[in-house]
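Hello, quick one for you while I still have it in my head. A protein chain has come my way and I'm curious about its shape. I'm sending you its amino acid sequence along with the backbone structure tokens. I'd be grateful if you could look everything over and explain what you see. Here's the protein in full, and shout if anything looks odd to you:
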Amino acid sequence: MNGSAVSEFILLGLSRSRALQLLLFALVSATYATILLGNFLIMATVWADSRLLQSPMYFFLANLSFIDMALGTVTAPKMLHDLINQGNTISYGGCMTQLFFVHFLGGSEMFLLTLMAYDRYVAICYPLSYTAIMHHQRCFCLLLVCWAGGLLHSTTQLALIIQLPFCGPSELDNFYCDVPQVVKLACMDTYVLEILMMSNSGLLSLLCFLVLLGSYSFILVTLKSHFEDGSGRKVLSTCSSHLTVVSLIFVPCVFVYFRPFSSSRVDKMASVFYTVITPMLNPIIYTLRNQEVKEAIRRLRNRCVFCWA
């Protein structure tokens, strides 16, 4: 382990109170079940409905749901295990693996949300050219670029982390392994490394967020002339759903990564938000605000009832 004397880390978690741990276990269990069921429902609905699957927006939405399921699975099961068993250690290899997948999935999700904003921009600002620009092959290639971007981001983070020596103490002030807390435990001056990682994670979050805001600003300007006759309300509802999801993800990430690394209770709350809460809220936001998805879910339910009858 590159000369490191630490073979495992201790996760301090969210609370040391046993009563609060049991309450958190119940809440996180319900949240994780909602993540799995809600996102799986969206994936199944899109893949079972050919009309939705042929639409780039819903094709990307199904992939977003897959990422949310995976991201919740990287952190929630370990948190539940630690809450119920009061066993809060994680091996060095397990910590590095968790850190890699959190940033791989998180980075891929940021790029995917940016791609979804671009898709809405093309659909609204260039409607006559939309099908030519966002054809199925191009959508698939753009999706691969999102995954490749997430992989590059995460690999860079891990490559910088694994070179660090860890001599103790080994306590991470969080419920999972993340860059700010791990870097603080290194037995060396990490100032330059923190700047590099802030440039990687912080700038990635900020730049994607600014691109998203720019895309939706152009969309709102384009829709302004259609507000009176009501033709822009449906598109505005879809865009507002996207903006809600974007805010829930990007604001906590910019807060945590785009400043000098530190450990605080606010950082942990932000981590809970973008690793557990947001993956739970995404399917709720998209289904409650989207009539097409609700109708497709109804058709899928009727089809399942007919098959069981």
Observations:
- The longest helix spans residues 92-125.
- Residues 94 and 306 are 45 Å apart (CA to CA).
- Strands lie at 8-11, 89-91, 171-172.
- The chain is about 75% helix and 5% strand.
